[in-house]
Structures
1.
Amino acid sequence: MQKETIIPESRDNAFRDLIIKMPGGENLLTCMQCGTCAGSCPVSHEMDYTPRQIVRMIQLGLKKEVLNSNTIWICTTCFSCSVRCPRGIYPTELMETLKPIAMKEGIRNKNAKFDTVFADVVKKNGRASEFLLFSKYSISEPGMIKQAPFGISLITKGKLPLSVAKMDDTRELEAIFKLGEENDGMETEK
Amino acid sequence: MVDNEKPKNIGVYLCRCGGNISDVVDLQSITESVKGENVTVNIQDYLCSSAGQEKIKSDIEKGKIDRVVIGSCSPKLHLETFRSMVKGAGVNPNLLEITNIREQASWVHDKEGKDSVNSKVRGLIKGAVARMSSIEPLVPLEKKLVDRTLVVGGGIAGITTALELADDHEVILIEKQPYLGGHMIGLSKTFPTLDCSQCILTPKMVAVHNHPGITMHTQTEVADVAGSPGDYSITLKHSPRYVDIKKCISCGACTRKCPAGAIFLPFAQTVPQAYMIDMSKCDRCGACVKICPRDAVNLDAKEEITTISVGAVAIATGFEPIDPSFIEEYNYPSPNLLTAIEFEEMLSAKSKTGMRLQKADASFPERVAFVLCAGSRDFTGKGRKHCSKVCCIYSQKQAQLVKKMKPEAEAWIFYIDMRSAGRRFEEFYHHTQEKGVNYVRGKVAEIIPKQDGTLMVQYEDTNLGRKGREIFDIVVLCPALIPSAGTKELADRLGVPLGDDGFIEEKHVKLDPVNTLNQAVFAAGCVLGPKDIHDSVTEGVSAAHKVSQFLGKGMILIPPEKPMILECNGCGDCVKACPYNALTLSGGKAMLSPLACTGCGICVPACPIKGIEIRNFTRSQLKAQLKAMLEDAPGVVVFIDPYAYAAADIAGVNRKQYSSLVRFISLPSIHVLDADVVNAAFEYGATGVMLIEGTTDEKLASRSDDLYKTLKKDTRKHKKPLRYSHIETAQYEKLTDLLNVFASQAGAKAEKRSRKEKGEEKGEETMDA
């Protein structure tokens, strides 16, 4: 995938034109590829494309690769890139813009799945539960089973509580999720 | 000839140059070995500073010294400063000389052992001291200047120079093309403000045409240069236009009648406003002659030659684009594959498409690519090394024009580095990005013309590390900008050296940017290197100021190092030898016209009774210098003329290392030498002697072979190597290669000889390798 030659058929200018009108895309055309974003990013070594490369790929309209990247899911929203970008681009917002588009396109790589599971847990309980997150994600991502001994040792040491805290009233939260599902293509268990 | 009347107290001043010299050369040890009864030595951090100069001045004023030897950077930088300082203190300026221990020692031998560099510098300074005690005070000659300037080139730089000068000094402006405006009149909009080129240029062209102080000649080139700085006689060649500029009212009656389409106005705003005939199309039917109401057409016009007299010359001959067809992978020329100049012209006053951007089939291009650095930044020798400076910005301007004419059209810029240094340029870059121009960092690898007239471009997006292929309707190559054809011929005629990039060498890269090494020749615009309109105008204004300053003095100082005729038998050999007709026989004796004399010294070896010497370069003075220079350690003696000396300076600035055995002796020209001096060099211990000249004056260079052959024959008894080489200022790399080869050959030969001598005489001679 990464070494594929860029040809007109692999480029989608409409995708570029869509993104530059969305949050995080405003100044995207003025990127000069300086690399401040990737240099500042604490997790760029885990990404298949650095934020700089993602911006360049959007300029070229490489839609498929941008949306399939793990970059947009790995971003921890620390905002270092956005604070430091000399051209006023907000890669953090850009990632948030790209996630729902990837969802709508039906992209379900393991990073996307993790976010989906996380959202499920929060939607149901109003709070995050590491135990539920861990166990549900293991079901959808079979490779995770290798992590089971680690999980068990966490449980036995009391580091992974099995009890799940719940919010008293989840109505407002449900409304938020509903909005997200209707407008942004967010997907959770119904 | 030698001033023996009063004692000579020589002050030697050595400059540390803030470590540039003292980090390599042990100045303290030099001091110890040089100081003596009448020689004091002093070391300063920066001799050129006011503290350094003050020290010399106060030593003179206290009566401690009356002659000065300076060991510092090249005399090209500060000789005039120091000389005017000592003049102020009451010492004849000629009694101060600079020994170049930076460009010719510390900067070029710092990779060698300290001992060998110290030994060289010691020799140089000792030689300079010996020379200083033997030379005489001289007063420069004065010559009246001709208060008229020739400006060569009618582009924006030449136009600016002419207009800035013409209120105070008479100007003759010549232009090779049939119209003024140079490349600028062929531009569309100008970055970074996007104002139209002809709108800002036309008023200036008209002003040149109307200015009473400017005589303008189009279709004119310099054919020959005679005379000397301040008083040139220049031959101009005028190609025929076949239409009298003064008579033509550009009514256009001729062009309507012409059946062959041969008579035309180059473009609507042409200055001068006059039609011209393309004789390759004309069938001489005479229709234009008959219809012209002003009788302006003359089909029998011939090339004309005129001669003008000027005091100064300003060169503003500009640039031309390199022909990109040598870049095989780009397949230029091909339909729809343009140079940026061709792209500009399509949208300029000179447009042949009605200022419409169009493909070969006359339709508007939907996709346009700009390929930067086509032939620039290339160190293989196929293209040019330099960056053409303006392409990054003009290609963005052209991309903006495409987007302006059709917002949905695509414009791609393929660049290596986006260089937008300079006021308002980064903003221009940012603005172009906002317009949606696609920037690809990566040099285009291949351009392949397709059957349908489109062009396939193959590249790597180096930001993504991925190859790419795109199809374009038009591809614009941004070619390397090189000096315009004929620059070298003109520069050679005027005795102005070029850099190895072919552009004119400035007197000083930073501090004298529009002066050349010829005091009467100035330069402005792209003939000094690629630049934009703003910088060309700045240089035009500067050059005008410098010309005005030069002419304003009314007089030119001529170096006083001229021949003196000590003895004459009236044989006339020197008269025959002199290439400048500066010697005549009068009353059975040779007489010198000092103003015609260039001080080349050809007359010195020509005199059969050794009756002629050049002042301050006499045989005995040169021998004294050689003796002292070689006293402590042998070396290779290199006699060098000012043009080749400038090459050695460039080698120094570029830190090109060469053997520290090399000892330069600077001469006005190598032609002052005869076997006496060269034999003396060998006797005093030179392991080899080289003659290096860089002059482009054919009158001298054509005689160098004979000089070399004579010297070779007359110094044969020493069995030591002698070589001659012609090195122009630009060829500093050739110079250092040559010096290295020669020094090692001379060294090897000397070693062999000493081994032989040891074998025969059990001598204790040792030799540096």
2.
Amino acid sequence: MFRLTEPTRLSEFEKQILPHLDAAYNLARFLMGNDQNAEDVVQEASLRAFRFFESFRGENSRAWFLSIVRNTSFTALKRYRSDEANVVFEEELHGGQSHEMDAGVAIDRAQDRETVRRAIEQLPAEFREAITLRELENFSYKEIAGIAGVPIGTVMSRLARARRQLQMILSKTYTK
Amino acid sequence: MSIDHSQVPELLHAYVDGELDLVNGQEIERHLRTCEDCRRIEQQIRALHEVVTSDAPSYRAPAHLRRNLRAALRREAKEPGRGISWPWLTFATVTVCAILLLAAALFQNTRATQRALADQVIGNHVRSLLATHLVDVASSDQHTVKPWFDGKIDFAPEVRDLSNDGFPLAGGRLDYLDGKTVVALVYHRNKHPINLFIAPVPAKGDTAPESINRRGYSLFHWTHSEMDYWAVSDLNQTELRHFADLLAR
């Protein structure tokens, strides 16, 4: 790619990347679990993105930026708490293995924002990522696969399992 | 029905998300018309999506983060050494400087040691000539000279007669160099005596003869088979180099 002078590079970056700061913060916030760590991760990821901005080919700036945020978050998570990594173990703990979106479990439709946030935050990191990117940021499976660095089939099964767990958490029968 | 019922639930997610291709999408739709369980699961997925997104649970970047970030980006854009943070750059610079200083000090030290040793070698050479104490064992026979050292020193120097090359062996004696007892072999070249000092240096690789000129004397220093060699004479440098090269082979 062409080389940008520093002022041009900065203004290009602010124009193309900074509009996605809310999406970046949302992902980091759900992955990291608190404001301070999320802010640190977004700041670090943004500076990293700025340094590598010349390697950005200009196709999908939102997905490109969020993949950096995602990687920075997971690196930080590994540093903070190593127990976050094990999805399978976590899933078995939550006991959602056998029934696919159990039709008998009805979720309360009158959930407020905080309840939903807390429910998502109870999921393992990879599932929080899948739910945030799909349900809240509306990325396609292909984009999510690119951001998370996994095959599309993995995205599909993670999303299915994440939704199953989330439904369990949100359902009245599970919480009571 | 071409799609197995057990496969449907997972595919339902892709179906609801609009990620299925037309053919598979139609298969799912056909299945849903006949399977009430799967229809209920589909409704659950849609209901969950509604619940999750209804009250806008997404977080928004706080204003101070945005401000701080803009400031940090401006600083980053101005920095010439971008790509590395300042603390790291400072740390790296300090480390490199320290290593260079240490290397220079060691090098200086080595040079100084080398010079001091060269001075001692010359001193030994001069004394050996003044005191007419050139040799303790006078012989041109290497088989006489070598056994003479047995029991006097704790290493076995290689003693070679180089008569055929014009450097006949004159004999040997014990001497001191760097506070240690060393072997001194004496050779002659057209009446010019050559002192060859030999001392063991364990675990040191071979080095080629290196010329050192001090106080009008020619010196050569080299290492061969874990032995340090110093050759000193008032011979010209070319002839002494020839002598050193013969022994260093």
